[in-house]
User: What shape does this take?
Amino acid sequence: MNQQLLKAFQKVLDTPKKIIIIPHKNPDGDALGSSLSLHAFLNKTGHQSHIISPNEYPEFLDWMPGQNEILKFSQFTDQSTQWIENADIIFTLDFNQLSRIDKMAPIVEQSDAQKIMIDHHEHPGDYASITYSDATIGSTCEMVFELISALDHDKIDSAIATCLYTGIMTDSGSFRFPSTTARTHQIVSTLIEKGAIPHFIHQKIYDTYSFNRLQLLGTALKNLTKIQEIPVVYITLSQKELNQNNFKKGDTEGFVNYGLSLLGISLAVIMIENEAEKIIKMSFRSKGSFDVNQFAKKYFNGGGHINAAGGVSHSPLAETVSQFRNAIAQEKSHFDV
Ligand code: 5GP
Ligand code: MN
Assistant: This one.
């Protein structure tokens, strides 16, 4: 991080502050890892920090050090609102548009607190007075590492290291996405020295499937469809299929990546029906130059990164599939066929 930005952080954190940290809705390993590590660091350096998550997170993250102190806005709306209103500083982590925190957005917007963004998505909004934004970095956790390491490296303990390692590992697809750099591995090396245990974290995240979840993966893989003559595959999961496998939040995490493991495939998509919210949630993953951030933005009200993005459809599942197939036909020239 550059010196000017570091000075800005040093200045606001110069005296003890009441701080609220907010990850995006449906927080993932990177959103929670960055929030928990920054929270622990701030509390160790004389501040009073709390994390408010817009909603629940999956079971495979509910072991992370400090996670049981996270307040969920969806459950404790009044208390969350009061804390946001009384805050001196609000950190927003792993997102760059307030719409990503849903119903919390107007409360944050109206708060007098100083807003600080730390995030690695493209096209940051302008709501923050300090914007630490870098779309070339693979995870928000790497950015939080750079910040807290520059502020006070010795305060990084095993809990902080574990949270940061988790976010870097999950956002990099276990260190295999193109965003993984020599710097990523240098940071991870330091985190291991500070007490992060790779095999323990890996098992907690990836080897905790329930029987139902593995069966649901079987259903997803059976539904995998290839678009003829274009290197694109997609998976659908209907609400009925989710119910049959006793679906729990987070169960479909990572399913989309199986499509990309096929030889020669450049784009993999999963479309998941959510009857309660009347939406189809979509995830896009690509290899190479196909920009799923642009694609998700253009066709499915979404966004993200060049090789990993998400979006939403308000049409029924079958119609969403047709819309998707039509969109792919439109973009056919962007695939090397
Ligand atoms: P996932 O497919 O794992 O939900 O998300 C992949 C990436 O796209 C993440 O970086 C996530 O923050 C972003 N993303 C997911 N859904 C949306 C969405 O609806 N809108 C935007 N702007 N980004 C999204
Ligand atoms: Mn992230």
Remarks:
- Residues 283, 302-305, 308-312 surround guanosine-5'-monophosphate (ligand 1) (CB under 6 Å).
- The chain has a mean pLDDT of 96.
